[in-house]
């Protein structure tokens, strides 16, 4: 079973405003397919893509592709708790699950945007998608079949495990709180100037290794860190 990361999908009310906001942060827009009937665009930072959807989807949703989706889903039907399925020759096929920590996983039959070379990076680099969980053991068990590699387990000061979900660096963390996109700031002064230029409000840092935080139009939290790895990020 091969899973390849497509995007971190976010629901938005205003597609244009959300797209503009990400481009101001240094994300670059990708060509997209017509797989979705709702408003949709995709933007990339480095090798990681964020999808913006004018639709009622869970925020955020991890989207991956799987080869031979219909066949593999039918084979797993008796052992996997699929919340939603669409498997039809005339439709865009997908399968949806929810992890123990509440994270939504959407498996689709094909990527919904063009595969491009890594986008140029300015003042920011992608670190990870941080996902807190109150049941660390169950969450690790859920994601293990989808992870290509895992890092060493960190137990101090809290449980943390970095997993590669088809190409998405995801940090499972045994804690409460909301999920966040973690970006590393490579040029602090240039980033501060960029945020001021586009009137993007920088929220106060909540950790010594942070420059600050952003709240995107989609509601997604972005942590702007000054170094990586971030084993001690609360």
User: What structural class do helix, strand and pairing data support?
Assistant: alpha+beta
Total number of beta strands: 15
Approximate helicity band: 10-25%
- What Rg do the Cα atoms give? 18 Å
**Strand residue percentage:** 35-45%
Shape estimate: globular
Q: pLDDT below 50 for ≥5 consecutive residues: which ranges?
A: none
**SSE sequence, one letter per element:** EHEEEEHEEEEHEEEEHEE
Cross-sheet strand order for the largest sheet? 2-3-4-1-5-8-7-6
Helical region count?
4
Largest sheet: 8 strands, mixed
Roughly what is the average pLDDT, rounded to an integer? 88
Distance between the ends: 34 Å
Describe this structure in words.
This protein is of the alpha+beta class and 234 residues long. Helices cover 15% and strands 37% of the residues. It has four helices and 15 strands. The chain has an eight-stranded mixed β-sheet. The radius of gyration is 18 Å and the shape is globular. The two termini are 34 Å apart.
